[in-house]
Amino acid sequence: MDVKLVKIEKRIIAGFSVETTLETNSKDIGELYNDFMNNGKKELLQNISNNASEYYGVIWYTELHKRYLYLIGQKINDNNMDTKGFDIKIIPEGNYCCSKFPSKYDGIKAWTDFYNTEIPELGYKPVEQNDIAFEYYPNGLDGEYELWSLVEKVQ
């Protein structure tokens, strides 16, 4: 895959989240997606985002390398919207590595390649303090996707 370094502005993501671990993430995130798709949460979110195609899967540690939150959501324009009942995560501005993957590319392999090969080859590493990474689905959850990680230059 082709990784690039991109400076982005702050993004506000509203959605629904679950706390998980590497051992239980498939089960936990699968249940989150199932609830999102089948229990009206997708439609609720689309009502505040006015967007039916772009989605984010935002990831950040709650306990470094042990526990993390995963939020499925959509970008909203400002914090003043009625977001009661939604979890909110701000993706801070900064330098991110980004790589695009085809729709059926295995997600675990994509993250592994992205973190272990692609980011280091650019001379960067993921930020561990106040870390954040996200999946971006520009054309729906079944389409191609991009992986993004907040990074810093290797010293």
Task: Summarize this structure as a short list of keywords or feature phrases.
155 residues; alpha+beta; Multidrug-efflux Transporter 1 Regulator Bmrr, Chain A; nine-stranded antiparallel beta sheet; 25% helix
Short description:
With 155 residues, the protein is α+β, with helices and mostly antiparallel strands.
Would you write up a description of this structure?
Strands 1, 2, 3, 4, 5, 6, 7, 8 and 9 form a nine-stranded antiparallel sheet that branches. The protein is an alpha+beta fold. The protein is globular, with a radius of gyration of 15 Å. The longest helix has 15 residues, at 107-121. 25% of the residues lie in helices and 43% in strands. The protein is built from three helices and nine strands; from the N terminus they run ββααββββαβββ. Strand 8 and strand 9 (145-153) form a beta hairpin. The mean pLDDT is 92. The chain has a single domain, classed as Regulatory factor, effector binding domain (Multidrug-efflux Transporter 1 Regulator Bmrr, Chain A).
Order of helices and strands: EEHHEEEEHEEE
Q: Give the amount of beta strand, in percent.
A: 35-45%
Low-confidence stretches: none
Report the C-alpha radius of gyration, rounded. Answer: 15 Å
- Count of helix runs: 3
Structural class computed from helices and strand pairing: alpha+beta
| CATH architectural name | Alpha-Beta Barrel
Give the oligomeric state of the chains in this entry, treating copies of one chain as homo and distinct chains as hetero. Answer: single chain
CATH topology (fold) name = Multidrug-efflux Transporter 1 Regulator Bmrr, Chain A
Biggest pleated-sheet summary: 9 strands, antiparallel
| Cα-to-Cα separation, first versus last residue | 25 Å
What is the global morphology? globular
Helix content: 10-25%
CATH superfamily: Regulatory factor, effector binding domain
Top-tier CATH class:
Alpha Beta
Strand element count: 9
Number of domains: 1
On the 0 to 100 scale, the average pLDDT is 92
